[in-house]
Structure prediction request, 168 residues.
Amino acid sequence: MKTLIKTRTKPFTKLQLITLVVLRVLIGWHLLYEGISKLLSPSWSAKGFLHESQWIMSGIANWVTSNDGVLKVVDFLNIWGLIAIGTGLIVGLCTRAAAISGAFLLLLYYLNNAPITGIEYSIPAEGNYLIVSKTLIEAISLVVLTVFPTGSIIGLDLLFARYKKIKK
Prediction:
């Protein structure tokens, strides 16, 4: 029986790997900047975003916004999660965990406010989307990055791997 997918016998080219690292760093920068901007804005809260939720996560979003203590925890986790994920992606530290965490967080954002026909939000949208948004694209890009060891190509993961090898 023939296989439909041919396996790759050659390693990836430097250009392919560098392109993946650049993608990792750019997404990391975006997430880090989002986290820092929220941290530096004393009045920022996820409440407005969650209040707009009308899709799959609307029940949970309503519960979070109706409970100040839970909302403060969500705000804290959101800010510091973005900062930690962004930093990890930029410096290449725990890149797989950072990419998985980032994809999970972005998918939560997407599931709260997806561009689905028939749902209208009171906050103006940045663009015109139908099902696929930049949030979904960024989340799927992070999923792709989880299968490539970009931190061990360029990043602190590489240094830790070398240190572990020397120590053995």
In short: The radius of gyration is 19 Å. The mean pLDDT is 86. The chain has one domain: 25-157. Helices lie at 14-39, 47-51, 58-65, 68-91, 95-112, 134-146, 156-167.
